Amino acid sequence: MAGTIICLGDSNTYGYDSRSFLGNRYPEDGRWPEILGTRTEWTVRNFGKNGRCIPYFLPEITYVCDRLTGWKDEASPVWIWVMLGTNDILHNPQMTAESVTERMERFLKKIMEREEIRKGSIRLRLISPVHLRRGQWVETDERCRESERLDDCYRRLAGKLGVAFTCAGDWDIPVLFDGVHFSEDGHRKFADCAIRELGLVSGETKVCD
Predict the structure, then answer these.
(1) Which residues of 73-107 are buried (b: 16+ CB within 10 A; e: fewer)?
(2) Going by DSSP bridges, is the β-strand pair 122-128/164-167 parallel, antiparallel, or unpaired?
């Protein structure tokens, strides 16, 4: 039975179109969370934000924790899909896949302390982001390699914490000239892959694995 998916992400969840100098986003029907909501019976909430890194400081973590109370009252089952880490690697040359994963572990452990998570009212899925590619925003191969290495690091972390895991890095999502942001085709392909691999259509239950 379909429920609610909360998509907690960065600009590639928000739907930022980097071809715009004004910070525009793709139309609602061109962003992967909204596509999922249209093509499946799931209620999908887009909580993407441009430039978001993994919440690290207390106010950032509190922002998420404060919303858990409201999210648990959404149509169940309720899932939070966390797809973050790209900006941590992109904007911090000293960050490695391991240090980014340490930040993610700290964040997930904090929210897993909350009653809504502990009692199963909300479940978590960790998604390793689509890989960076050389482009106007990505000037070194090193940043690309670290984003690729994040797949295995997140996979191990998900196993350690007992949360669901999806590797979007395997989906070969098209990005724009900047090497970072999904193209329009990329958003459609991301939705296609999520629907297929996570069984989001009626009668399938992979999303609850």
Answers:
(1) ebeebbbbbbbbbbbbbbeeeebbbeebbebbbeb
(2) parallel
Asked if omega into 129 is within 30° of 0 (cis), the reply is no
Yes or no: say if 196 and 180 are a contact pair by the CB < 8 Å rule. no
Contact 174, 185 (CB under 8 A): yes
Q: What is the pLDDT of residue 203?
A: 46
Angle between helices 97-112 and 58-71 (to 10 degrees): 50
Distance CA 183, CA 48 (A): 16
Q: Identify the H or E element spanning 116.
A: helix 115-118
At 22 the pLDDT is 75
Digit-coded pLDDT (tens) for 134-178 = 998 898 899 999 999 999 999 999 999 999 999 999 999 999 999
Residue with tokens 């670290």: 146
Query: What mean pLDDT, rounded, does the chain reach?
Result: 93
pLDDT for the residue numbered 205: 43
What is the distance between the alpha carbons of residues 43 and 37, in angstroms, rounded to a whole number?
6
Q: Is the pTM of this model over 0.85?
A: yes
3 state SS of 63: helix
Helix H or strand E segment including 109: helix 97-112
d(CA 97, CA 151): 9
In the chain, the amino acid numbered 175 is: V
